[in-house]
């Protein structure tokens, strides 16, 4: 009997020593000190022009809201400027130590969410830009987010430095620990909120711990039933999503009356198509619900302007809701610099990246490609709207609390990277000393300066009338 072997699917299994040697060899190609600092190139694209270019594929009337949210502070600008930083990172030295990147690993994209076993866990929770690439791109974005947030909080350089170093040190030390774990032990590693609460109770002061408990309680209450109470009402005997324009616009308010039914049917067809991307057990669960209503909902900062729908599904009755979010997935901001995704469907790119990076993911994750009323085909990924989601209140964190949060985010990012990359090679590259940590701190502070210059450029564009801004929305 002849057994055919597909050479393209063959997986190499180097020894631990060989993997560590690869990581140490990478130091010669890209010295760790080469990551320190940031110097903008002599010819650098206008940041406002890059944002305007992104806006070309988005809902035009929502772009002023995006700019308004980005202009709240340099930190909110940073949250919306992933494309700007990706272009800057592309011109810097990069390692060949690749992982599945989040692509937008700033500190507000970490938080609590419900695992399938209904326990709250902590992890990365935004993957719109996910793509394979050099591990340090995510880490640079994360450390810089703490530098920018620290400035936003009024922390001086002396306060910010230990916070920035804490992120990088936690990532480095955690990666080296993950390198020693058994494969299954690493795969199942996660942070349960209950365990985090015990740690926080020891390290935080009474005020900080009470705030933590309030945030956790708020996250636990966020589910489809709560979403239904907050976001829907009964109209003429039927449950419908509320109207709160421009942030929430029911489907029937977006088009002329004669297009309502076409759009409603398109939404039903999208649900049917999405259903086919679920595993059979979860498809069976979804089939217990029927489509009730939909609305466009503005979300986030960087995502504003992309098409995002909330879809109300009902099971046995109105008290049995399932709220889904259909979020447009466009080309990752990393793709122009790292190459196209292996997934032709951008929604699938997001879902597969999320599953690879998270210890546990939303059971309703799926994707769909659908044609809009304008005749344009677009990709979407689907998840539950509210599923125990919560995030840190950055605007109230003191330096010591931010340092604790920095360590948590560093561990979490290292774990996410170790699931897809070679923890042994990355750990060997990082080493046991603090040289790499200090390089990350120097980069973060230098790039925070660049972020402030880019923020000022958008502010000037708003004041001159170059871009329209809708503030406070």
Protein model, in words:
This protein is an alpha+beta fold. It is built from 18 helices and 13 strands. The protein has helices at residues 16-29, 47-55, 63-70, 74-80, 82-90, 135-152, 157-178, 183-188, 193-203, 206-220, 224-231, 257-275, 280-286, 335-338, 346-357, 399-420, 423-430, 435-464, and strands spanning 98-101, 110-114, 120-124, 131-134, 191-192, 232-235, 238-241, 248-250, 290-297, 308-314, 321-328, 366-371, 377-384. The strands form 4 sheets. It has a 6-stranded antiparallel beta sheet, sandwiched between helices. Strands 2-3-5 form a 3-stranded antiparallel beta sheet. α7 (157-178) packs parallel to α16 (399-420).
Query: What's the oligomerization state?
Result: single chain
Low-confidence stretches: 1-5
Spatial strand arrangement across the major sheet: 8-9-10-11-13-12
SS summary, helix count = 18
Number of strands: 13
Question: Which whole number gives the mean pLDDT?
Answer: 93
Please identify the structural class as seen in this structure.
Answer: alpha+beta
Tell me the span between the first and last alpha carbons: 68 Å
Sheet-strand content, in percent, reads 5-15%
Q: Radius of gyration from the CA trace?
A: 23 Å
Indicate the percent of residues in helices.
40-55%
Q: Describe the main β-sheet briefly.
A: 6 strands, antiparallel
The domain count comes to 2
């Amino acid at each position: 009997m002849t057994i055919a072997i597909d050479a393209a699917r063959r997986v190499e299994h180097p020894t631990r020593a060989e993997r560590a040697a690869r990581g140490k060899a990478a130091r010669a190609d890209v010295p760790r000190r080469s990551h320190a600092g940031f110097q903008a190139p002599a010819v650098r694209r206008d940041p406002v022009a890059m944002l305007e270019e992104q806006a070309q594929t988005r809902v035009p009337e929502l772009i002023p809201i995006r700019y308004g949210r980005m202009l709240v502070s340099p930190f909110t600008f940073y949250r919306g400027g992933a494309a700007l930083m990706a272009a800057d990172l592309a011109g810097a030295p990069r390692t060949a130590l690749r992982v599945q990147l989040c692509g937008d690993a700033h500190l507000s994209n970490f938080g609590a969410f419900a695992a399938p076993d209904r326990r709250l866990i902590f992890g990365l929770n935004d993957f719109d830009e996910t793509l394979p690439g050099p591990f340090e791109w995510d880490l640079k974005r994360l450390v810089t987010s703490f530098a920018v947030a620290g400035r936003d909080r009024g922390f001086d350089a002396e306060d910010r430095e230990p916070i920035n170093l804490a992120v990088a040190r936690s990532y480095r030390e955690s990666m080296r620990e993950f390198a020693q774990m058994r494969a299954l032990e690493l795969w199942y590693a996660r942070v349960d909120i209950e365990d985090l609460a015990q740690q926080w109770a020891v390290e935080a002061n009474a005020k900080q711990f009470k705030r933590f408990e309030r945030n956790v309680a708020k996250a636990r209450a966020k589910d489809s039933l709560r979403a239904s109470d907050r976001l829907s009402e009964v109209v003429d005997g039927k449950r419908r999503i509320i109207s709160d324009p421009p942030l929430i616009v029911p489907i029937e308010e977006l088009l002329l009356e004669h297009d309502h039914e076409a759009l409603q049917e398109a939404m039903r067809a999208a649900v049917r198509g999405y259903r086919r991307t679920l595993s059979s057990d979860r498809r069976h669960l979804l089939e217990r619900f029927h489509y009730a209503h939909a609305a466009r909902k503005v979300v986030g900062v960087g995502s504003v302007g992309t098409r995002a729908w909330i879809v109300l599904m009902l099971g046995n009755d109105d008290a049995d809701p399932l709220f889904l979010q259909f979020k447009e997935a466009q080309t990752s901001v990393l793709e122009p610099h790292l190459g196209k995704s292996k997934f032709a469907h951008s929604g699938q790119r997001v879902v597969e990246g999320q599953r690879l990076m998270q210890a546990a993911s939303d059971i309703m994750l799926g994707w769909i490609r659908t044609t809009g009323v304008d005749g344009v085909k677009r990709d979407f990924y689907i998840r539950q709207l509210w599923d125990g989601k919560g995030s840190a209140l950055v605007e109230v964190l003191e330096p010591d609390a931010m340092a604790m949060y920095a360590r948590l985010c560093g561990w979490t990012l290292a774990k996410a990277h170790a699931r897809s990359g070679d923890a042994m090679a990355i750990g060997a590259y990082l080493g046991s000393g603090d040289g790499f940590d200090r390089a990350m701190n120097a980069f973060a502070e230098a790039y925070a300066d660049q972020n402030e210059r880019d923020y000022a450029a958008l502010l000037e564009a708003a004041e001159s009338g170059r871009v329209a801004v809708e503030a406070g929305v």
